[in-house]
Specification:
The protein is of the alpha/beta class. Helix content is about 40%, strand content about 20%. The protein contains 20 helices and 24 strands. The protein has a seven-stranded mixed β-sheet with strand order 11-10-12-13-15-14-22, with helices on both faces. Strand 14, helix 13 and strand 15 form a beta-alpha-beta unit. Helix 5 runs antiparallel to helix 6 and helix 7 crosses helix 8. The longest helix is centred in the N-terminal third of the chain and has 20 residues.
């Protein structure tokens, strides 16, 4: 294996042998079938017991534009994006080759299809070039044009198996599982893998110094997309109605719910569905259907992204003011407007927390893993019923549409759904006059009824206009004020029912604290480990819910220097902390990434280091 440019007098850097700790990036053409092959590559590494973190970076068009698939291998278990240049680039897209060559670290490897000569402008003296005639091989082996395109991807996966040490048995097991419903495809896929392996072995005298070795670090773990986990969580959370309108990147939440409901929500006696899925004409209609179904006693939800949340604002205000449970899964993407619909961000925080006009505040949950997507989606239905209000789950494209390693999902079969303060017909007979908005317990949460529970008593209809404690329409200011003050009492009660933040203490004496939420988790923890090794120890708190519990303010007050890590431009979590906890804005320092890529450990570390070093220099000046 030698440098492509033989006239160069400068030999490329030789990397020392690296085991289970590097990044491989694939550059393909969207619509070429590469995603399946690249996913096979990542899953085979997972089955070797090695922690792996794949991310699909794809365009919003259907076919033809460049797409990338980044796979991080980390024996230490760091599953966030590392950032920086990659050790191995697999480039089979001429459109992006200039960019792809530049993304390789010095001493790294550029794997390409050398059926055609490489443009001399793409030659770097400090990296290694690995050429294999993929097009020539596929043309000589397969007659059908589509098969040639698809199997070229499988062939390069087989070549990588030789070059970096993927166990062939692991690849075979992936093929068998993938095509078990189409067994005729198993043999040709394994043939293509073997072909790629043999061609690489014949062309190169030895594998790369980037090597995989079997471990047992994935026991009790699975690979799962966050959207699928949300769909499954909705089933286990008791949802029977899903009303939605398709929008990237949330569509697979509804698809996941349908998939699992067809297995778990079928009447065993009649074979009929015990669930309903409605594709509405738009997002506004979808949330309206959800509110109507919840009002009538079902557990109902919808899934959308930022543009959909914008359209749902009026109905979210209705559910807040009329106090109707509802669950909304917002899989965030890059905005505003259409923005970059296939890129990730955390930019819907403020529009969700203060959704609708007037004085409204909405409960929000922030999962960071597929396991939390499952658990918090299921919990969201209990929370919505207890508080009689919408609950908005804020995930993002990175979590929702990529497969992540997480702990195996668990469920307690003895768990009962908590419907909150729902009065039965017997309860209504035992009380005098029913007050739908009458706070008896002092927690701001009133009692509700399911329409039809009693032939005469209870709430049969609702409205979004002002009313008194007995749901009688009024425009008297004092009645409106009492109702709004009670809603504020309920808001202060809400943290009792919400998941608590997670604090990671690395040094009890440090005055540096970090606040983060959602998918910033993995990159944040890796960055803080690196900073600790460099002499900057910091504790961190991960926020799981809004409104904030007292632990959030306690953590901030215990540290002199607070960094807030976010994936948006306008520091939206910082804004919430300042507004809700009355914290001085200057006491919070923002670390903001908003280019559409998942935040990386390198970005967090360098951003914090710059501030910390500047502060230290100022103290010694």
């Amino acid at each position: 294996m030698s440098l492509l440019n033989p006239s160069s007098t400068k030999a490329p850097i030789q990397l020392d042998k690296v085991v289970n700790d590097f990044v491989v990036k694939f550059a393909n053409v969207n619509g070429s079938g590469s995603a399946s092959a690249n996913s096979m590559f990542a899953k085979a590494i997972f089955r070797m017991g090695i922690p792996v973190s794949p991310r699909n970076i794809f365009p919003s068009n259907i076919q033809g534009a460049p797409t990338w698939y980044e796979v991080r291998v980390s024996e230490q278990g760091y599953l966030g994006r590392r950032g920086g240049q990659v050790e191995l680039m697999v480039s089979v897209n001429p459109q992006s080759m200039a960019e792809d060559v530049n993304s390789v670290c010095p001493g790294g490897y550029f794997f390409y299809d050398n059926t055609y000569p490489l443009d001399f402008k793409l030659i770097r003296d400090d990296i290694h070039y690995i050429g294999l005639p993929l097009t020539e091989i596929t043309n000589a082996t397969f007659n059908d044009p589509r098969r040639r395109q698809l199997f070229k991807n499988i062939i390069y996966v087989g070549s990588l198996a030789y070059l970096i040490g993927i166990e062939f048995e692991a690849l075979e097991s992936i093929v068998n599982d993938t095509f078990k419903a189409k067994p005729k495809l198993i043999e040709p896929n394994i043939f293509a893998l073997q072909l790629g392996f043999d061609e690489a072995k014949a062309a190169f005298d030895k594998p790369l110094p980037l090597q995989l070795e079997r471990r047992d670090k994935n026991d009790g773990k699975i690979m799962l997309e966050g959207n699928a986990a949300c769909g499954l969580g909705a089933v286990y959370g008791g949802a029977t109605v899903c009303a939605w309108y398709p929008i990237t990147p949330s569509t697979s939440v509804a698809e996941g719910f349908e998939k699992y409901a067809k297995k778990l929500r079928i009447d065993p006696d009649t074979g009929e569905n015990n669930f309903a899925i409605i594709q509405a004409e738009d997002e506004l209609s979808a949330i309206g259907m959800v509110i109507g179904a919840n009002w009538n006693g079902a557990r109902s939800f919808t899934a959308t992204s930022g543009p959909g949340v914008s359209l749902m604002q009026e109905f979210l205000g209705l559910a807040y003011f009329a106090e109707i449970p509802a669950v909304l899964v917002d899989v965030q993407r890059t905005g505003p407007s259409t923005g970059m619909p296939t890129r990730t961000q955390q930019s819907d925080l403020l529009i969700s927390a203060y959704a609708s006009h007037g004085d409204t505040k909405q409960v929000c949950l922030f999962p960071a893993t597929p396991k939390e997507c499952f658990e918090l989606t299921a919990d969201a239905f209990d929370i919505a019923d207890r508080l009689q209000t919408p609950v908005i789950m804020l995930t993002d494209l990175d979590l929702g549409m990529n497969e992540h390693i997480c702990e195996d999902l668990e469920w307690d079969d003895s768990r009962l759904y908590d419907r909150g303060k729902v009065l039965s017909a017997k309860d209504l007979d035992e009380i005098g006059r029913f007050g739908r908005y009458l706070d008896v317990d002092g927690d701001g949460i009133t009692s509700r009824t399911i329409p039809g529970a009693h032939p005469e008593k209870g709430a049969f209809f609702t409205r979004g206009t002002s009313r008194d404690e007995y749901a009688v329409y009024t425009e008297k200011g004092e009645a409106y004020e009492r109702n709004m003050e009670r809603l504020l009492v309920k808001w202060k009660t809400a943290p009792e029912y919400l998941p608590k933040p997670v604090v990671t203490a690395r040094n009890n004496d440090t005055k540096i604290g970090v606040v983060h939420y959602g998918t910033s988790l993995e990159a944040t923890h890796e960055a803080l480990d690196q900073l600790k090794a460099a002499g900057h120890s910091a504790n961190d708190i991960r926020i799981l819910a809004f409104p904030f519990s007292s632990e959030v303010l306690d953590f901030i007050e215990q540290h002199d220097e607070i960094f807030v890590i976010e994936q948006n431009r306008d520091a939206q979590m910082k804004t919430l902390l300042v507004n809700e906890l009355e914290i001085a804005p200057r006491s919070l320092k923002s670390v903001l990434q908003f280019n559409g890529d998942p935040i990386s450990a390198n970005f967090i570390r360098t951003s914090m280091e710059e501030t910390l070093n500047t502060n230290e220099a100022a103290k010694t000046a």
